[in-house]
Specification:
328 residues, alpha/beta, Rossmann fold, 41% helix, elongated, VWA domain-containing protein, cell membrane, membrane
Length: 328
């Protein structure tokens, strides 16, 4: 609440002084009729009597409201709006068979990759994020969206067997870049996670990276997997599940070249903890650009206050000349 013309509130000083003098004058005035005692008069405790005692207070109240209306009281309502310049991001996640390796605790590489990707998505604000899965070929799982809950559900649904086995890194980069090229955002990012060497698809990763650079896409490449050999589960119908040690074959040279070509960075994640740190670091490199603006919208309350004062004054005059008319 504020007053647009607060100086009019100074009129309450002479008004209060006049009201006080009128009260004192009424107290000093000689009575119309002299009585030695009021005991013989009937009691004045009815509704009409009580209303008659309240009637003289309506006019000062009405005048006070009129003076208040002159000061133009205004009620404010704060309005907030989010002004954002979101980033367009595509997450490309490897679903090849080597992602079954269980060097990332508590389970295999794909399981940890899903959890970390969901954590990354939930930490973004006003960024449009899409999802690409790849193995022997690349497939768009989700277009760019702001529905983070729905996207996290799709990430949870990523599993082995959805695509033919293999590692089509170049195809994943090309498809992600094609999707980002359609996006209206100024900043476009691809986060590529793989644990292998490109061995499928019609385009090699470096050529795809050059295409991505041409449409303004930055690539952050992540090589997942421990250095050396990793335990790989094998389910045998007779012997049951047992583990064999399989060498981790991350093509770091190619992934570094892909990142360098597009102005991004390459990261090596050899554990679940390091993978989580990598996503956090990428999030810090590509912060969401969100600005909160707030302003107050003021509404004039003066006409309402003036109408209330006028209504009270009209009520006082109406009652004073009718049911509460006093004699003499």
């Amino acid at each position: 609440m504020r007053f647009a013309e607060p100086w009019y509130l100074l009129l309450f000083i002479p008004f209060a002084l006049a009201f006080w003098l009128a009260r004192r004058r009424a107290a000093w005035r000689d009575p119309e009729l002299g009585y030695s005692s009021l005991a013989a008069l009937p009691p004045t405790s009815g509704i009409r009597a009580r209303a008659a005692r309240l009637l003289p207070r309506l006019r000062p109240l009405a005048v006070g409201l009129v003076l208040l209306a002159a000061a133009r009281p205004q009620a404010g309502r704060e309005i907030r709006e989010v002004v954002s310049e979101g980033i367009d991001i595509v997450l490309a996640i490897d679903l090849s068979g080597s992602m079954r390796s269980e060097d990332f605790r508590p389970r295999n590489r794909l399981y940890v990759a899903r959890q970390v990707a969901k954590e990354f998505v939930r930490g973004r604000v006003q960024d449009r994020i899409g999802l690409v899965a790849f193995a022997g070929r690349s497939e768009l799982i989700s277009p760019l969206t702001l529905d983070y809950d729905g996207l996290c559900a799709l990430i949870d649904g990523l599993d082995f067997g959805q695509l033919p086995d293999g590692t089509a890194v170049g195809a994943a980069i090309a498809q992600s870049a094609e999707r980002l090229n359609r996006a209206p955002g100024k900043s476009k990012v691809l986060i590529l996670l793989t644990d292998g060497i490109n061995n499928a698809g019609a385009v090699d990763p470096v050529t795809a990276a050059k295409l991505a650079k041409a449409v303004g896409v930055r690539i952050y490449a992540i090589g997942a997997g421990t250095q050396g050999a990793a335990p790989f589960p094998v389910d045998d119908p007779i012997l049951g599940r047992h583990y064999v040690w399989v060498a981790s074959e991350v093509d770091e040279a190619t992934l570094k070249e892909v990142a360098r070509e597009t102005g991004g960075r390459y990261f090596r994640a050899t554990s679940a903890e390091l993978l989580s740190q990598v996503y956090h670091e990428i999030g810090a490199l590509e912060p969401s650009r969100v600005e909160m603006r707030s302003y107050t919208q003021w509404a004039e309350m003066g006409p309402r206050v003036l109408a209330l004062g006028g209504a009270l004054l009209a009520l006082e005059l109406l009652l004073g000349f009718t049911v509460l008319n006093r004699y003499p």
